[in-house]
Model the fold of this input.
Amino acid sequence: MNTEEATATQNLSQNDSRPLLEVSNLKVYYGQSLIVKDLSFKIFPGQAVCLLGRNGMGKTTTLKALMGLLKDCTGSITFNGEPIAHYPPNLRARAGIGYVPQGREIFPRLTVEENLLIGLEAAPAKERVVPEFVYELFPMLRSFLKRLGGDLSGGQQQQLAIARALVADPKVLLLDEPTEGIQPSIIIEIEEAITRIKQERGVSVLLVEQYFEFAQSLADYFYLVENGSLIMEGLTSQMDEEKVRSHLSV
Done:
């Protein structure tokens, strides 16, 4: 990241830096049902952005569309200055988009080490070594390398899923409900790890979350989604908490 980009990120001045990821007028269908409706948002280098909203509002669908996992989509997706809406999922991953799906989806019958190495499949064979920074973020993993993924606790599996997405050193990390079903102590560790990759490695983060306090502490900017449409956005530090919470409550 150059000096201008670093200053723009620090000040969150969106006029001084080109977006890393820009989504314009995204529509996503399931059959005849329109789930995401003309959604537009931007993520800048080194920025953490949160998509807030209740269940069933189109947040997970949006992340799947960004990774190319859903075919019935229209709109523009630009990553690092290049249009990628036509890219299949593997090319989006190679371009620098990491994805941690809801429910983690680690491989339970593979070891922790094998799960991590799967995240390096797109890298040249000579470079398929888990980076040291991943073990620095999640020291537990080094101790459990030969343990089956399915034998880990839910919180440990979530750490493994995030680490698997990070081994390829992505430019942006998509996180879908990383706190779901996780004990508070692990949530704190995950929050610290995400903060570190943003600050130390310049990784941008797009977070889908319902846990308000976690999202508020982690994100620089937020978008509030309801029924597949954007209804509010702004700096997290300046959000109207009462109004946002009213849209998150059931």
Observations:
- Residues 1-16 have pLDDT under 50 and may be disordered.
- The two ends are 41 Å apart (CA to CA).
- The chain has one domain: 3-248.
- The beta strands are 21-30, 33-43, 48-52, 73-79, 82-83, 97-100, 172-176, 204-209, 221-226, 229-235.
